[in-house]
Design brief:
Ribosomal Protein L25, Chain P; RNA Polymerase Alpha Subunit, Chain A, domain 2; four-stranded mixed β-sheet; disordered C terminus
Length: 206
């Protein structure tokens, strides 16, 4: 689990497109805090801080302590809007995180021990089906990554979610099937040679 980041913000009164444009001219990004059965709070954050956090990766899967004029709000970013042309941050939505909350988040998949995979050593290729997995996790224990161990994997093997050790309290949101995260596929040269041998054998039999 990552250390909770602190992001500075300030309350704002004006709402609407005009007020938002004025904030952006001042180098600020309009944002809102909502949820946890409390009224929404309109805020602004520094443009440089917003862009730094968005492009650091995992923005939508990390809980943040939002310091609004000295008051701390425990939140998770739920959405953000970028200018379609310039990729500038235009608006950010933050969801309050209450005590004992569980959240649906996308977590990055990391593969380890590739050098201990006989299939990869023979020239097989790791075919990643899912680069992220959506999980239900406690707000205070969102995993930084989902680790998939490739030790012993052979050509033709499929790694399913059931083979992955998830942290305590964390479960996949897809529960109706044992979905595939990655497969080890044969190199094209091996496919061709094995296909050729099969064809020759078939011809001899005929």
């Amino acid at each position: 689990m990552a250390e909770t980041k602190v992001l500075k913000a300030q309350a704002r009164e004006g709402v609407g497109k005009g007020a938002a444009r004025e904030l952006r001219r001042q180098g600020l990004v309009p944002a809102v805090i909502y949820g946890d059965k409390q009224p929404p709070v309109t805020i602004s954050i520094a443009y440089k801080d917003a862009m730094k956090n968005i492009y650091a990766g995992g923005f939508l899967s990390h809980v943040i302590d939002l310091d609004v004029d000295g008051t701390i709000h425990h939140v998770i970013p739920r959405d953000y809007q970028l200018d379609p042309v310039k990729d500038f941050a235009m608006h950010v939505d933050f969801l309050r995180v209450g005590a004992n909350s569980k959240l649906q988040v996308e977590v990055h998949v990391t593969f380890i021990n590739e050098e201990q995979s006989p299939g990869l050593k023979r020239g097989g290729t790791l075919n990643v089906v899912r680069h992220t997995v959506e999980v239900l996790a406690p707000a205070d224990a969102i995993p930084e990554e989902i680790v998939v161990d490739l030790s012993g994997s052979e050509i033709g093997d499929s790694i399913h979610i059931s083979a992955v050790q998830l942290p305590a309290g964390v479960s996949p949101t897809i529960t109706d099937r044992d979905f595939t995260i990655a497969t080890i596929v044969a190199p094209s040269a091996l496919k061709s040679s094995e296909g050729g041998e099969a064809d020759a054998g078939d011809a001899a039999t005929a």
